Amino acid sequence: MHCVTRVELSVCCGNLLDRDVTSKSDPFCVLFNEVDSSWVEIGRTETAVNNLNPVFGVKFKVDYHFEEVQKLKFALFDEDKCSSQLYEHDFLGEYICTLGVIVSNKKLHRPLTLANSKPAGKGTITVRTSCLYTSFPQRNPRTKNMSTHTHTHTHTHTDFFGKSDPYLEFHKQGDDGKWMLVHRTEKSNTADVRKSVHCVGVKRGPSGNFLLCVLLLQIEFECINPKKQKKKKSYKNSGIIILKSCKVERDYTFLDYILGGCQIMFTVGIDFTASNGNPREASSLHFINPLGSNEYLSAILAVGQIIQDYDTDKMFPALGFGAQLPPDWKVSHEFAINFDPTNPFCQGVEGIAQAYSVCLPHIRFYGPTNFSPIITHVARFATQALQQETAAQYFTLLIITDGVISDMDETRHAIVQAAKLPMSIIIIGVGNADFAAMEFLDGDSSVLRSYTGEEAVRDIVQFVPFRDFRNAPKETLAKSVLAELPQQVTQYFKQRNLSPSNTASE
């Protein structure tokens, strides 16, 4: 389900360069985002007069998209003239990063640099993030679920031959002042309506009006029909609505969990089976072309460049399967591509790419194509996270493969078990093989079952064939494979009734 999340960025700075002779600098901050390799201005703060440690009151509002690399630049200038042209003002320093880095840190404190990448003196910038809202189709932003149990007793008959068939409608007022229906109870063939409903506000109904405020709750509400009230002086009400109970619950979004400190733990699994071809030959899917790339590397970089922003230490395990390893040349389906089984971590996505390139000449491609060992490997760590009392960790496994799965029954079983854990699996198929089995594991068309008949409690697999994106912009692949991840994260934590680790974002 597509959603739009809007965040607010607050900026303050410290120890800015002093460009004025007789006074201190008068700084203001400009925010840019990168569009087609060019910087486009988003907005500017006010000017802080004679202040090298400004706390800007103007906030930047930006649409946040998890599945995109959103590159931002904060640039500081000393206002010298009454001009909107930035070249008319002295440059004080800048900081460039992605929006993903900002939201995953919530409060980001970094040094400023000059255009030549040298330090801007001792200047620093601090960016704080808050979520303004997340809006979904047919849903108002940042709603809170209010579970209420109501008992409605009406004594005004609107039917000619019998009693009324009453029902309740609950509406929420939007920012534009308009009312939107959020729930309607079933009709009752009596004058009493006894219902438990989920609502976020109420509006006028055909029999009468009442307004429910979550902060000022009352026990009973009169249901008023304005037309009858005008016609009859003796009219009191059309019935009584009795609120039996009310429970207000926060509807946490993916960004709430990220701002609360949830880390996305990223692991890569790479297929080194013989069907990929000899990596020294140009026909091989593992052949690294003169541009230094292939489909495996492209997939790693496309997904990794986004997910790495959500793990503060950026240390990622990278595993291989289906290859014979030195010195005894035994087949392994779960080996560290840096050949250090005690420490399979690589520094960032670039570290994964480097370890992958280095290991290619030192292994022999073999087979078969078994997924279950790597899925079980990551699941062991995700199982440890079951002890967490808040939403602190979520595990994502990226598997890149060229062909048909050999251990389908074991893989189905491993996925069904992993669906109970804070874990998702992304599969990218490279080459032109038949990926029908991968589509089956995706579970979009039917519920995945293990060979024992056990159903997956949720869909955690997303599969895409790389060939569908060969001629598309590189960002398109990441958008496709990561589109379902935020929903899978929130679904898991909500099923477990886990709140963000730090709910200060409320």
TrEMBL record:
SMART domains in alphabetical order: C2, VWA
Organism superkingdom: Eukaryota
Cross-referenced InterPro entries: C2_dom, C2_domain_sf, Copine, Copine_C, VWF_A, vWFA_dom_sf
GO molecular function: calcium-dependent phospholipid binding
GO CC, any one term: plasma membrane
Pfam families listed in its UniProt record: C2 (PF00168), Copine (PF07002)
Domain C2 per the UniProt entry, residue ranges: 1-112
Protein's UniProt name: Copine II
Protein's organism: Salmo trutta
